[in-house]
Amino acid sequence: MSFFYKNFMFLLVLTTAVTPLIFSSSYERGESHNIRSGELYKTWHVNVTNGMSNNKILFLHCKSAQNDLGIQNLIVGNYSTWKFRPRIFGKTLFWCYMASDNGHAAFDVYWEDENFFYRCNWKFCDWIAKDNGIYLKNIPEGYDEFRHKWEPGRLY
To answer: Could you tell me which PANTHER family the record lists for this protein (predicted)?
Structure first.
């Protein structure tokens, strides 16, 4: 066998063995899903909107392990948005702390989970802070899904 052929066969066998490990689905929440690997590594968008009433200001601080998106104060109707590509190796996770007169909430706004991806239509996660809690827009089904209640007080 030629040197080229041996190396080609080695790479083919290695790729076949490693690919399932790279795209396996062991996720933050202990759930196992068969996520379409190509969908994971495209550009994702996350949007957080202040949908509260009476001119309430939403304090917002979002981050991941690699990126701190900074502190923002959103007036009613305004939003914060960012885009990113998930990491190829390892899990991508973004979380936010929100606070207003109603209280505070801290939770994940992007994690690798097929049910979550479905709600975001596999590309755009839209969170809305309302007077009675935090909602995720379920895009395919066309409604705002209640996800988190406001906790009393503020942490910041």
So the answer is: PTHR31232, S-PROTEIN HOMOLOG
Cβ contact 108:93 at 8 Å: yes
pTM equals: 0.72
Q: Which residue has the tokens 């969170």?
A: 127
Burial of 100 (0-12, 13-18, 19+ CB in 10 A): buried
Q: Please report whether residue 74 resides in a domain.
A: yes
What is the average per-residue pLDDT within 128-148?
Answer: 96
- Distance CA(76)–CA(105), nearest Å, equals 17
Alpha-carbon distance 120 to 133, whole Å?
19
Strands 103-110 and 124-130: unpaired
What digits encode the pLDDT tens for the residues 71-111?
999 999 999 999 988 877 768 889 999 999 879 999 999 98
Q: How many domains does the chain have?
A: 1
CA dist., res. 97 & res. 92, Å (int):
17
The answer to the question of residue 117 being in a domain is: yes
The answer to whether 98 and 19 are in contact (CB under 8 A) is no
Question: What whole-number distance in Å separates Cα of residue 148 and Cα of residue 134?
Answer: 5
